[in-house]
Write a structure and sequence with these properties.
Elements: H1 2-6, E1 19-27, H2 28-41, E2 45-46, H3 50-68, H4 85-149, H5 160-167, E3 174-181, H6 185-195, E4 201-206, E5 211-212, E6 219-220, E7 222-229, H7 232-244, E8 248-249, H8 256-312, E9 316-318, E10 323-331, H9 335-348, E11 356-360, H10 376-383, E12 390-392, E13 395-397, H11 415-448, H12 452-483, H13 489-498, H14 513-532, H15 534-547, H16 568-574, H17 578-602, H18 605-629, H19 634-672, H20 689-696
Antiparallel strand pairs: 1-10, 1-11, 2-10, 3-7, 3-8, 4-7, 5-6, 9-10, 12-13
Helix pairs in contact: 2-8, 2-9, 3-4, 3-8, 4-8, 6-7, 11-12, 11-18, 12-14, 12-17, 15-17, 18-19
Organism: Hibiscus sabdariffa
Pfam family, one: V_ATPase_I
Membrane topology: Multi-pass membrane protein
Length: about 700
């Protein structure tokens, strides 16, 4: 029997491949090439570098610089034969040194340019303050002095101006001019006022243009200021406050002719720096573009070499025999391929000693490996969902899920914010899709009843209005998911109404988004009067034409008999109240416009239900079952299991299911059926003895 079983063919699809524990004894000169060939083969799992790590860091630096410069990756990168690792290391070091030097020079030039630009703005803005201050300096000085002498209750805080006039030979007001961030201007003024005890005059004016902040590398609004004061002590305090607030002080001469001369010199210097900066940027972009053509190949090569050295680190070095010894698992069917790869490595490395490959006796459990093809791989993935791993050779790894929610979110810090955002957007997508389906069903209703007015003046504008706003929102959600953009959809939708012509900035998801928003907004506004006005007036026109003899319809039998009494049907045909029809259409239009917003928001109840169910499940599982299972007591465990079973059966299954059913029923009745279903008919009640007997009972 055992012999019969051994002769059976292997069950590749139903059972893991048989594994062998093997040992490799590799000469030093063949080690690198042998491990490299085994890595290409991908059929040997080893058991259990700073050089390649440094090269990887340089390549990441290059990639960051390319992204920072806004350069696109080449569509067809250059593919050249792999260079030696030593030569590549030299090239990367040269490129890194060149980029660091260019960045340093660019930062220095940019800082000089910003300082000159600030100096120019201060010269232009502060000049107006100095002209007026020269005319009133003496009067201001006298006014400040008189105000201080008149304050007899403030002896300890005597005027700094008075002190300076007594202790120094200097007279007259002095000033410090500079520039500061607009957000700090108010606090800056208050601190100056307190430090000088009010003995200063603070003038400010907006810079008029945004200036690059050297710390954040972002353009910020700044304010030019001029502080008038008296005395060296006040000057020292003001300069310290300026330094603490990050204000830049620039000297401005009193003489207007000197101001104009310095302004011309600064403007000339700025023009030269602009040319120099542009040339530097072009040179840097050219260097980054050249690196970008080889970056992919270099990263692959360094990654491969790093993997080889990481594997070599798993091997043991035998000092006596001058060889590396390693152990690993391989499928039995792969022995021949591995030995062939090892032999090829020996030949290519011109080694005089071959690589020894022999099977060992294994005491531990081998790894699991199933050979699959394109058809069976999908089913194996379903089975692997318990462990949801993929195999490359014998190495298992996990990829992000192409669709659905990756289980790795479970237990992470950002689990709740991520799932909330995902479920909220999914609720909106489902709601807009169902409301569109309801409007489409109204088209088939109108077509069935041959009502062309409802198609032209109800179905068409409703589709335009709903999809111009909420259909567009759904499109933005899908684009954001596909592109991974960080755009704020709340900001996009709000300012689509408030400022439709404003630049979207970082919230732009695709080219031409702003003009598209304007077109959609106009369509939505046009759709409202389209729903409201045409239909009542056309009905009035048709009614008047009919009863003026222009449009004769088929006469009903009662119209042949002049003695017949007018029945209800005849009365309904002849009655037409325009005001009632118009008010009804107006109510219907307003209800649809407002309902488009409220109905879309109502679908968020799906998000709320999902959130409540998820949190309740987590609480019952973690705070009841796992908590009870943490005790080494069978009674506590049984109680915890009973409570968890009760909560699962009666709360999560019964109550949550009933709640979900009621909310879903509400969405079908209100948000979905109001688009096409009126329910204004009457039920068919045929004459039937069976029904009569049931009513009597």
């Amino acid at each position: 029997m055992e012999k019969f079983i051994d002769n059976l063919s292997s069950m590749d699809l139903m059972r893991s491949e048989k594994m062998s524990l093997v040992q490799l004894i590799i000469p030093v000169e063949s080690a690198h090439r042998a491990v490299s060939y085994l890595g290409e083969l991908g059929l040997l799992q080893f058991r259990d570098v700073k050089r390649c790590g440094e090269m990887s860091r340089k390549l990441r630096f290059f990639k960051y610089q390319i992204i920072k410069a806004g350069l696109l990756s080449p569509i067809h990168p250059v593919v050249e034969p792999d260079v030696e690792l030593e030569e590549l290391e030299i090239q990367l070091s040269e490129h890194e040194h060149e980029l660091i030097e260019m960045n340093s020079n660019s930062e220095k030039l940019r800082q000089t340019y910003n300082e000159l630009l600030e100096f120019k703005i201060v010269l232009l803005k502060a000049g107006s303050f100095l002209v007026s201050s020269n005319n009133h300096a003496v009067a201001k000085e006298r006014e400040l002095s008189e105000n201080v002498h008149s304050n007899h209750n403030y002896d300890e805080a005597s005027s700094l101006i008075e002190q300076e006039m007594r202790t120094t030979d200097q007279s007259g007001l002095r000033f410090i001019s500079g520039i500061i961030c607009k957000s700090k201007a108010l606090k800056f003024e208050r601190m100056l006022f307190r430090a000088t005890r009010g003995n200063m005059l603070f003038n400010q004016a907006p810079a008029g243009e945004e200036i690059m902040d050297p710390l954040s590398a972002e353009k910020v609004e700044k304010t030019v200021f001029v502080v008038f004061f008296s005395g060296e002590q006040a000057r020292t305090k003001i300069l310290k406050i300026c330094e603490a607030f990050g204000a830049h002080c620039y000297p401005v001469p009193d003489d207007l002719s000197k101001q104009r001369q310095i302004t011309r010199e600064v403007s000339s210097r700025l023009s030269e720096l602009e040319v120099t900066l542009d040339a530097g940027i072009r040179h840097q972009n050219k260097a980054l573009t050249s690196i970008g053509y080889h970056l992919t190949q270099w990263m692959n090569m360094v990654g491969r070499e790093k993997a080889v050295y990481d594997t070599l680190n798993m091997l043991n070095f035998d000092v006596t025999k001058k060889c590396l010894v390693g152990e690993g698992w391989c499928p039995i069917f792969a022995k021949a391929k591995i030995q062939e790869a090892l032999h090829r490595a020996t030949v290519d490395s011109n080694s005089q000693v071959g690589i020894i490959f022999h099977v060992m006796d294994a005491l531990e459990s081998p790894p699991t490996y199933f050979r699959t093809n394109h058809f069976t791989n999908a089913y194996q993935e379903i089975v692997d969902a318990y462990g949801d791993a993929h195999s490359s050779g014998l190495i298992k790894f996990r990829d992000p899920y192409p669709f659905g929610v990756d289980p790795s979110w479970r237990g992470s810090r950002s689990e709740l914010p991520f799932l909330n955002s995902l479920k909220m957007k999914m609720s909106i997508l489902l709601g807009v899709a169902q409301m569109n389906l309801g409007i489409i069903l109204s088209y088939f209703n109108a077509r069935f009843f041959h009502n062309s007015l409802d198609i032209r003046y109800q179905f068409v504008p409703q589709m335009i209005f709903l999809n111009s706003l909420f259909g567009y929102l759904s499109l933005l959600i899908i684009i954001k998911w596909c592109t991974g953009s960080q755009a704020d959809l709340y900001h996009v939708m709000i300012y689509m109404f408030l400022s439709p012509t404003e630049d979207l900035g970082d919230n732009e998801l695709f080219w031409g988004q702003r003009p598209l928003q304007i077109v959609l907004l106009v369509l939505a506004l046009v759709a409202v009067p389209w729903m409201l006005f045409p239909k009542p007036f056309i009905l009035k026109k048709l009614h008047s034409e009919r009863f003026q003899g222009r449009n004769y319809g088929m006469l009903i039998p009662s119209e042949f008999d002049p003695d017949a009494e007018p029945g209800p049907a005849r009365e309904r045909q002849e009655e037409f109240n325009f005001s009632e029809v118009f008010v009804h259409q107006m109510i219907h239009s307003i209800e649809f416009v407002l309902g488009a917003v409220s109905n879309t928001a109502s679908y968020l109840r799906l998000w709320a239900l999902s959130l409540a169910h998820s949190e309740l499940s987590t609480v019952f599982y973690e705070k009841v079952l796992l908590l009870a299972w943490g005790y080494d007591n069978i009674v506590i465990r049984l109680i915890g299991l009973a409570v968890f079973a009760f909560a699962t059966a009666f709360i999560l299954l019964m109550m949550e299911t009933l709640s979900a059913f009621l909310h879903a029923l509400r969405l079908h009745w209100v948000e979905f059926q109001n688009k096409f279903y009126h329910g204004d008919g009457y039920k068919f009640k045929p004459f039937s003895f069976a029904l009569t007997m049931d009513d009597d009972d």
